[in-house]
């Protein structure tokens, strides 16, 4: 009896069996916990995940796959991937390609709703090197494809725009051309081309507005330096106290207010290319000596520096002044003049090349038509007025007059009446000289009338002076002179 009771007190199973059973329960709990974690990981992925076994039977899909495809997990678990293809839900199965090729594959797949996805299938092998599962990573690329198409379309548009801009740029920024039918000007251009082939210094002379800058640009573009910089400098526009630092630069701390890093001068900027010094006669004497050194030694010295910098610059200078007269007056160095005047080129005034008026006028009008998408033309009477006018402002004045009438004329035909008063051909009753006057007096009377008419028309000195092709100070001086003479006559 005691033995029976003792047996009843013993566990139903052996100790070893119970321990094994407990381990199995713990392992099952761990597996469930890992499975839940795996589910969380899969569902946290933004990309869709579609898992099949080695026969293509669906084992698991995550929430992202449901979101991307619209399919529910319960509707496809346990079904073959081929069923989805047969039902037209997907265009083709990446899983079957992986099973066939036994390697990772990537395909573009179309869904029934029109979406496009990128699917990468990766095989999982067992210990016998057989495919146990296929894990498909599914990414929605519909928006990316739409964006790519939009980018392609925009790229095509941009190419068209760039082509059109390039066409306009080539037309508006043609190489510098000197339009002329004048024999002397043609000879001058031949000389300019010969000079362009060498690095020698050129001095261009001519009145204001004849096109000295165009000539300098022409020489640069026909030289071996054409692919380098052309630095244009108007010597009259730089304050005298800043000229040296602008031309040659300065070291840091060279003077009060100087840039803390120093500054590169215009000659250094032009290194390897060409520098065009317009209005060279405006250089002060102290700077002329330094300019001579640059020409002779091809080196510059920054303000505040004790060292020199070698440069390789071709110099083209221009002036509307009589430099020889300035030399006699002690205003310009003779040695600098001869160093600049190696190749002298004199550009004729427009009144001395009247045969160029029509080609130049038509060229300016053509550029404006192109720029503003117009088709304006000149009436033949306009050409007569152009031929009869003296053009004191030369080509620049002609260009300004044409631009003004182009903008202010509403019609497509520009007539003589659209021209500024001073440019129109005078009729018989527009200029009246009473009595017997000497030429100087007659010219003065006409000049006074023109100044008064210009001021009355524009209402300010700047525009009135510009219309007459003179500067503001000259206009004020002449107008004051005539008003003074008029007041004297009234008091007599």
Automatic annotation (TrEMBL):
Residues 34-86 form the PAS domain. Residues 178-407 form the Sigma-54 factor interaction domain. The keyword Coiled coil applies. Pfam families: AAA_lid_14 (PF25601), HTH_50 (PF18024), PAS (PF00989), Sigma54_activat (PF00158). Keywords: Aromatic hydrocarbons catabolism, ATP-binding, Coiled coil, DNA-binding, Nucleotide-binding, Transcription, Transcription regulation. Residues 100-153 form the PAC domain. Residues 144-171 form a coiled coil. SUPFAM superfamilies: Homeodomain-like, P-loop containing nucleoside triphosphate hydrolases, PYP-like sensor domain (PAS domain). This is HTH-type transcriptional regulatory protein TyrR. It comes from Fusibacter ferrireducens.
């Amino acid at each position: 009896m005691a033995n029976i009771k003792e047996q009843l007190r013993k566990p139903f199973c052996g100790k070893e069996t119970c321990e094994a059973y407990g381990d199995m329960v713990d392992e099952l709990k761990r597996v469930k916990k890992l499975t839940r974690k795996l589910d969380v990981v899969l569902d946290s992925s933004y990309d869709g995940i579609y898992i099949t076994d080695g026969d293509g039977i669906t084992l698991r899909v995550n929430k992202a796959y449901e979101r991307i495809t619209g399919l529910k997990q319960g509707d496809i678990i346990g079904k073959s991937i081929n069923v989805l293809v047969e039902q037209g839900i997907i265009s083709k199965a990446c899983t079957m390609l992986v099973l066939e090729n036994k390697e990772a594959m990537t395909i573009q797949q179309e869904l029934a709703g029109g979406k496009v996805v990128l699917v990468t299938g990766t095989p999982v092998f067992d210990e016998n090197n057989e495919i146990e599962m296929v894990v498909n990573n599914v990414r929605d690329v519909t928006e990316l494809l739409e964006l790519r198409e939009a980018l392609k379309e925009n790229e095509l548009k941009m190419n068209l725009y760039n082509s059109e801009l390039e066409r306009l740029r080539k037309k508006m920024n043609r190489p510098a051309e000197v339009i002329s039918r004048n024999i002397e000007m043609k000879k001058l251009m031949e000389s300019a081309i010969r000079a362009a082939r060498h690095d020698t210094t050129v001095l261009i002379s001519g009145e204001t507005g004849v096109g000295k800058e165009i000539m300098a640009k022409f020489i640069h573009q026909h030289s071996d330096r054409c692919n380098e910089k052309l630095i244009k400098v108007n010597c009259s526009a730089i304050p005298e106290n800043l000229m040296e630092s602008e031309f040659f630069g300065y070291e840091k701390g060279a003077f009060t207010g100087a840039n803390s890093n120093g500054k590169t001068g215009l000659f250094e900027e032009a290194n390897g290319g060409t520098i065009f010094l317009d209005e060279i006669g405006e250089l002060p004497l102290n700077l002329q000596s330094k300019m001579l050194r640059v020409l002779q030694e091809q080196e510059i010295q920054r303000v505040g520096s004790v060292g020199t910098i070698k440069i390789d610059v071709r110099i083209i200078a221009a002036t509307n002044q009589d430099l020889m007269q300035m030399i006699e007056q002690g205003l310009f160095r003779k040695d600098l003049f001869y160093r600049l005047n190696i190749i002298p080129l004199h550009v004729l005034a427009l009144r001395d090349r009247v045969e160029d008026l029509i080609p130049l006028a038509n060229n300016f009008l053509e550029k404006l038509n192109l720029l503003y998408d117009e088709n304006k033309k000149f009436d033949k009477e306009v050409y007569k007025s152009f031929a009869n006018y003296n053009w004191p402002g030369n080509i620049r004045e002609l260009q300004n007059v044409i631009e003004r009438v182009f903008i202010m004329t509403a019609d497509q035909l520009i007539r003589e009446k659209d021209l500024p008063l001073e440019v129109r051909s005078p009729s018989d009753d527009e200029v009246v000289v009473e009595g017997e006057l000497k030429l100087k007096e007659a010219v003065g009377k006409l000049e006074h009338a023109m100044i008064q008419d210009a001021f009355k028309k524009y209402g300010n000195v700047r525009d009135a002076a510009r219309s007459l092709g003179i500067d503001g100070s000259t206009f004020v001086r002449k107008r004051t002179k005539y008003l003074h003479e008029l007041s004297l006559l009234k008091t007599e």
